[in-house]
């Protein structure tokens, strides 16, 4: 008998607050560090500054992780990092960018930020489709991800591909991946919400990019020498670079997930197909060969139209 269970949060309130504080400090430090790019590299092209910003972000993530683990021995919260990034960009927009944009752009961006806050809370607290077998320990994966449990959803009749998440230590219906940024698994019950939130992030970031470029054009900061830029003006340029970098990887990420929907495959299945027998096409050895060839196959692909229809039929 399959029972739905809620994810438990073992963190105490003090530890949770501590992680949020660390994440907030890291967000502020990151944006202040990025503001050094337009100040010291204004003579370089915009694409070069973008590349320097990407490199600096990678260095900050690596160095920050090392400092937290080795020196401070504290952990950060990825969802809190996402939250404080949104809050920082919104606060900077209201205090610096907003006077230079039209009322329409202002309304679109503010509503976009509100949507992100609501969506972030919803995805963090959502149930991705966690199940457990009444006779098995939920902390240990069973030998087979499918054969030892009921394969059909009693409510919708849709095929359930149960996959084990090592992070959550639970079985998830149609697990796609465990998302560190949202602190939750993405599975059958919240996959659509996940995609909607991704589109929300991209549209809100694109709106901020338009607003910040309008501010840059009116203030002329892109044409002035770096020595004349104030901190707020340097932050305006660095947040433009940061937003473009976010949009670049998010567009690729969304394209990948749209492909997965059209092919009816999950990210976890695509990466770990060798451990799922139903994805293995065994080709017996031919005359003169001494080995068995194993190739990838997708037994769930029913064609784009049927795959999308099945995806849309899943409950949020």
TrEMBL record:
| Residue intervals of the Palmitoyltransferase DHHC domain | 161-274
The record's comment on protein family reads:
Belongs to the DHHC palmitoyltransferase family.
Q: Where does the UniProt annotation locate this protein?
A: Endomembrane system
Species of origin: Rubus argutus (Southern blackberry)
- What does the domain comment read? The DHHC domain is required for palmitoyltransferase activity.
- Record-given protein name: S-acyltransferase
Q: Name one GO cellular component term.
A: Golgi apparatus
Pfam families tied to this protein: DHHC
Ranges annotated as spanning the membrane? 16-37, 43-66, 78-96, 108-124, 193-215, 235-259
Q: What class of enzyme is it?
A: transferase
* Keyword annotations: Acyltransferase, Membrane, Transferase, Transmembrane, Transmembrane helix
Catalysed conversion reaction: L-cysteinyl-[protein] + hexadecanoyl-CoA = S-hexadecanoyl-L-cysteinyl-[protein] + CoA
Where does this chain mainly localize? membrane
- Name the domain of life this protein comes from: Eukaryota
Q: Provide the membrane topology annotation.
A: Multi-pass membrane protein
EC? 2.3.1.225
Record-level Gene Ontology MF annotations: protein-cysteine S-palmitoyltransferase activity
* Gene Ontology terms: biological process: protein targeting to membrane
